[in-house]
Amino acid sequence: MNRYEFDALVIGTGAAGYGAADSLYKKGIKNIAVLTEGRLCGTSRNTGSDKQTYYKLSLDGFAADSPGAMAQSIFDGGSADGDKAYAMAQYSLPAFLRLVDYGVPFPKNAVGGFPGYKTDHDDTRRATSVGPLTSRMMTERLEDKVLNENKTPVFDGRLVVKIVSDAGGVCGVLALNADTNGLEAFCAPYVIAAVGAPACIFGDSVYPRSQHGMTGVLLDAGVRMNNFSQWQYGLASTGFRWNLSGSFMQVIPRFVSVDENGAEREFLNDAFSDPRERFTNIFLKGYQWPFTAGRIAGSSRIDLAVYEERRRGMRVYLDFTKDPAGFEASLLSDEAREYLAGRGVTGKTPYDRLLALNAKAAAIYEDNGVDLAKEAVEIAVCAQHCNGGAETDLHGETDLPGLYVIGEAAGNFGLARPGGSALNDTQTAGLLAAERIAEEKRARPSPAAIERALQAEKETVSRFTPDETVTYEDIPQKMSLCAGFLREKEGCEKLFGEIGALLGDYAPRHRDIVSYYRDLDLLRAAKAYLETVLAEMPLTGSRGGAIWTERGGILPENGDYRKYRTVTENGKIRFVPVKPIPTDDRPFEYFLNKL
Q1: Predicted confidence (pLDDT) per residue in 106-144, tens digit
Q2: 192 and 273 share one domain
Q3: What is the pTM of this model?
Q4: Which of 164, 402, 448, 510 is spaced 20 to 30 Å from 90 by Cα?
Q5: CA–CA dist 160, 517 (Å, integer)
Q6: How far is CA 541 from CA 111, 164, 517, 530, 551, in A?
Q7: Last residue of a domain, one of 429, 453, 477
Q8: Residues 35, 83: one domain?
Q9: CA gap 15, 56 in Å, rounded
């Protein structure tokens, strides 16, 4: 059988995908299916940090909070719509409490409250965590509900290669069955893409190697991009890929570069000649982990120093086995010294301090074959999250009726976001999409369009020729070198031309058919990204998570553009004014009477 019919399809088996599938089921839309390239792959299941953060409306004791205040914290990052920020805040409690109900053990106090802590880009205590693997636990609990209680079918090993539509909107998708290399058609009036970011476009990346995304398929379907230049980058280990934020920095490890002869040096001494400034900024890097253009005189100077060492051909490591040269706790700022002392963190080595501060963080490395007590880990400034993505409305629907994009694949954030807000978005976005779909109930489309698309794609597959010499493995590393957190106009222009030429001559030849489709998606996404960067950043300058250089000089930010979003369509951009945070002062009785 190569054709299936459902009332709705969800693509992706991460926290966003399973959350959306469960939300649809609860709204009475039960004839649904979940498609996935690999059920155990993806970012939600395979990434984390020192204590991976979930951001929500505060339930922390007597702290004052409101959806409007939380929305303001998201909105203040710049270039983000206020209505989406408000919806993320308003829907955060039902989303969070669903996870609690499904068994995610967020910390509670004796009277049932949920204590919180501060996260980056936020001064409240809205953050919570179950440890380094918060998103994995969310995914597993949601998966249990969707598969074992709701009995929703999951089609594993399906690589979605095309979104099919007609004049009325989406008709379904075509997917390559990785086991048979055959094409299958899935017909549905609704498709929710919860497939994460195009992680494949960067070589220096903390995304799991199993995470590819399908942004290229969305672009091929005519979906516009929103804020696609806005990514988040930060220090991470490159062997075992993991974010080195929070506790990993607060224990003051050594930053060491090693040349081809094995000679090492502590290169941060060049970036910070004053030891007090050096050690305090390493500590602050825990709070301020994402690279930020506005902090290049402070903690983000560390990211630049790491990048420059690697560009010189050095290998760079984070070493927890002994203190940086000259380190004494008395050289830390009062805030840093009191933070560590107040938690009893007084060990003689960074590893000892890490065990005292956050033993679970050290255990993550041990569980993956790395003993931080004995060995250093190689690091880079890595792509970690896309703050942009598909252009959608408040409920996640694109311009193509019936096609929704949620989670990291959608562009709901602007220049900066509170840490952990992405995990909140994986849950609130699915609730919003399911709410709209349940109200609208589009008719099931005619199978004619999907049959035509299936036959056309089968023709492409029939012409496929295996060729082991075809590879595009150098493109992601070139992207990281000139178009990552440090973006060079000249390098971006050259790479854009190279990728355009590759796409212009892209033929059905590759080492295998799956790689053919994956790399086609990579090239489409990388081209669209570079189009956005090259059109936007000469106007906006350095901002958010990236620096823009022209002829070796850094272009400063033009802050006026924080009032706009960048929308990319057909290779061109336009600046769209951000929507304000909505207010509605109508009395309660108005809403009561609408019931």
Answers
A1: 999 999 999 998 887 888 899 999 999 999 999 999 999
A2: no
A3: 0.96
A4: 402
A5: 9
A6: 49, 38, 34, 15, 14
A7: 453
A8: yes
A9: 16
Asked if residue 279 belongs to a domain, the reply is: yes
> Given this model, what pLDDT does residue 271 score?
95
Closest of 29, 57, 28 to residue 421, by C-alpha:
57
Write the single-letter amino acid at 250: Q
Residue 361's contacts (CB-CB under 8 Å, 6 or more residues apart) are: 50, 51, 132, 246, 247, 248, 354
If asked whether residues 82 and 125 sit together in one domain, one would say yes
Residue 546 corresponds to which amino acid? Answer: A
Check pLDDT > 90 for residue 539. Answer: yes
Asked if residue 168 belongs to a domain, the reply is yes
pLDDT of residue 570: 87
Indicate if the pLDDT at residue 229 is higher than 70: yes
For residue 572, give every residue at least 6 positions away whose Cβ sits within 8 Å of its Cβ, in sequence order, or none.
531, 535
| CATH code of 548's domain | 1.20.58.100
Instruction: With a cut of 90, say whether residue 534 has pLDDT above it.
Output: yes
Q: Are 201 and 373 in contact (CB under 8 A)?
A: no
Q: Exposed, middle or buried: residue 76 (CB in 10 Å: 0-12, 13-18, 19+)?
A: middle
With contact defined as beta carbons under 8 Å apart, do 266 and 256 qualify?
yes
Q: What is the DSSP letter of 287?
A: H
The Cα 82–Cα 164 span in angstroms is: 32
CATH code: domain of residue 356: 3.90.700
Distance CA 433, CA 453 (A): 26
Residue with tokens 């390239």: 37
Indicate whether 17 and 78 sit together in one domain. Answer: yes
| 60 in Cβ contact with 35 (< 8 Å) | no
Dihedral of CA atoms 414, 419, 422, 428 in degrees, nearest 10, equals: -100
As a whole number of angstroms, the distance between CA 293 and CA 555 comes to 11
Range(s) of the domain holding residue 142? 3-230+387-453
**Greatest CA span in the chain, whole angstroms?**
77
Phi and psi angles of residue 404, each rounded to the nearest 5 degrees, phi first: -115, 145
Average the pLDDT over 295-314 and give the result: 96
Number of structural domains (the chain) is: 3
Residue 75 sits in the same domain as residue 167:
yes
| Tokens linked to 291 | 């690279």
1 has pLDDT over 80: no
- Does residue 582 belong to any structural domain of this protein? no
* Percent helix, strand and coil across the chain, each to the nearest 5: 40, 20, 40
94: Cβ contacts below 8 Å, ≥ 6 apart: 431
Helices then strands, counting H and E runs in the chain, come out as: 19, 26
Whether residue 214 is found in the same domain as residue 291: no
Give the Cα separation of 574 and 532 in Å (integer): 10
- pLDDT per residue as tens digits for the range 323-363: 999 999 999 999 999 999 999 998 999 999 999 999 999 99
Residue 230 and residue 79 in contact, taking contact as beta carbons nearer than 8 Å:
yes
398, 430, 453 - which closes a domain: 453
Which tens digit of pLDDT belongs to each residue from 560-589? 999 999 999 988 999 999 999 999 889 999
Tokens read off for 148: 């074992």
Model pLDDT for residues 247-269, shown as the tens digit of each residue: 999 999 999 999 999 999 999 99
> Is the domain of 212 the same as that of 247?
no
Q: The CATH number of the domain where 121 resides is what?
A: 3.50.50.60
The answer to whether position 583 is within a domain reads no
Check whether residue 137 and residue 39 sit in a common domain.
Answer: yes
